[in-house]
Write a structure and sequence with these properties.
It is built from six helices and no strands. The chain is mainly alpha-helical. Helix 1 runs antiparallel to helix 2 and helix 1 (4-30) runs antiparallel to helix 6 (107-126).
Length: 131
């Protein structure tokens, strides 16, 4: 069983990080620094997921070995509706994130689209409450 109160606290902290980084992206885009925006943006969603996992495991007694691996942890969260995303949605966000941040053919378009993608991700996080 997951400690929902502790998890919500970690989720809120990580959501704040996403919001801060999204603001940094916005500032870079407004200055037409699309390369800087992409550098920040490419790590936001993967970093959120990794930090959420590490934050939850930190200081735990490891009584839930089934969530020790990141992929198992994310699957557990999506199956138990502890994230506002399905497993398929998370995969979609990660694939799009990788596409926008690794395609150097149109930096301005990719920077803006990555910002929009992360904005949608953050809005879902912001509106989410654990039952």
């Amino acid at each position: 069983m997951i400690d929902k109160e502790r998890y919500q606290e970690i989720l809120n902290t990580q959501n704040t990080e996403v919001l801060w980084n999204l603001f940094q992206m916005h500032m870079d885009i407004s200055k037409r620094n699309f390369i800087g925006s992409l550098k920040i943006g490419k790590n936001i969603i993967p970093g959120f997921l990794i930090n959420l996992h590490e934050g939850y495991l930190q200081g735990r007694d490891r009584s839930m070995p089934e969530i020790k691996e990141l992929s198992s942890f994310l699957e557990f969260l999506t199956e138990n509706e502890l994230l506002p995303f399905s497993k398929k949605e998370l995969q979609h966000y990660l694939l799009k994130n990788k596409k926008f941040s690794s395609d150097n053919s149109n930096i301005e378009k990719n920077g803006s689209e990555l910002y929009d993608l992360i904005s949608k991700f953050q809005i879902k996080l912001n509106n989410f409450q654990i039952n």
